[in-house]
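Ticket #4471: structure export looks truncated?
Reporter: QA, pipeline team
Priority: medium

Steps to reproduce: submit the single chain below to the structure queue and open the exported record.
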Amino acid sequence: MSKKFRLRGVYPALVTPFDKKEELNEEAFRALIRSVFDHVDGFVPCGTTGEFEYMRYEERKRIFDICIDEANGKKPVIAGTGDPCTRNVIELSKYAEDAGADACLVVTPYFLHPSDKGIYEHFYQLSRAVDIPIIMYNIPQAVGGYLPRRVIEDLAEIDNIVGLKDSSGNLTYTMEVLEKVGDKIDIVVGHDEVVLPALAGGCSGMILASAQIYPDIWQKVYRAVREGNLAEARKQQLKVQKLSRIFCRYGGPVPIKIALKYMGLDMGKTRSPLKEGGVILHEDREEIRLELEKIGKIPLSEPPVEAPELPLDKRFEDIGITAGEVNNNKILVGSASAGSGINKVRVDLIAGRKDGVVGVAFASQLVYLRRGYEALPAILEPNLSAKPCCLIVPTVELKNLRQANIMYGPAQAGIAKAIADKVEINVIPKDIIDTHVMLVKAFVHPNALERNILYKNFYDATVGAIDMAFGRGVM
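Actual output as written to the record:
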């Protein structure tokens, strides 16, 4: 009877919205369901992403009721009824069944880890107590152990145990389960980073936290795999691979609620003791925002930015060196770009004596810091500056900590290494390293993120700028 329930397609593991007092926000929950309704094949309330372990049973029952009401019989609801206690799982599952849920999702018993026999009895007793279809849930990173494969084999023989959600991300385990019971129950992937290989290996669908953020993209992956178009599936998966990695790395509820808030769906904070602070770094929050922009989930926060196109001798006027001074003094200038797209950088370099106009500008940038354009030295490693001494000045205003980290991380290191290498081969004469200083106007797009790529690009651009500046020899 119950084996007729088929677990197919894309299901979001819904967050549970809380208000400022950490109470259920029913209006926000309904808004969340409506926002994804047309893009998903069903709903999963009170799973791991739903913070079920921090909720009272009456709260979970209320969330079941709301979700079932919003689904209105048009799409299935899989109620998360897991608990380490068998009696409690039976109580919650009976409630879900009576309320009209289509299936229940039951996690491996946790905390006081039972034996394999105890795990079997947990699911067996539940199957005897309810008629609702049961989906087993393997998430070892949360419960401290795998749902044993041999137990799954035995449980798959029970009529109303119809599926397994595998959130391990361990494809070896997934494939072994598919081999043993894939013809008896449906296996769905629950780890966002490995959706494509899991589907290609035989999984019938997915239950994902990220399916409430970009369910449309997961639908494209799902359809492409079913049609045998792995190239298209790979293309779609890679669009969201970085976001999926962030969501998995930080455990679901915290980053998902941050992403939803960016998208205009305020689900409140996570319930204590889960907190954003100390879990999600500022740089990671910015990555979430930028990746959401890339896939069109939120508007672009900044228009496209290009390095100012001025004659080279006029590019240093904002740091106190006029075009006339560049042309009438013994000053060396050079410029070069490297990279492409959002990771393209440009280095405008000027070098001169400490007792000349470049030295004066150098001192001025150190003493009179400009907000958003603060100058920092090029350093090879902590407490080891490049020689000749070089200050890096951003070309584009730095508006947040993430942008500052990019400028004063990869830029500092790449520029300093290029200077050191050019001194080593005497393109920059060793006899001027104590008499001259350099200033670098460094451009990088405000949305750039790839630190390793940016390091190489800054190195290459600095090499080009030095070659241009010192190609005629020091005056």
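Status: closed, not a bug. The export was complete when the record was re-opened. Leaving a note from the reviewer for reference: DSSP finds 17 helices and 14 strands in the chain.
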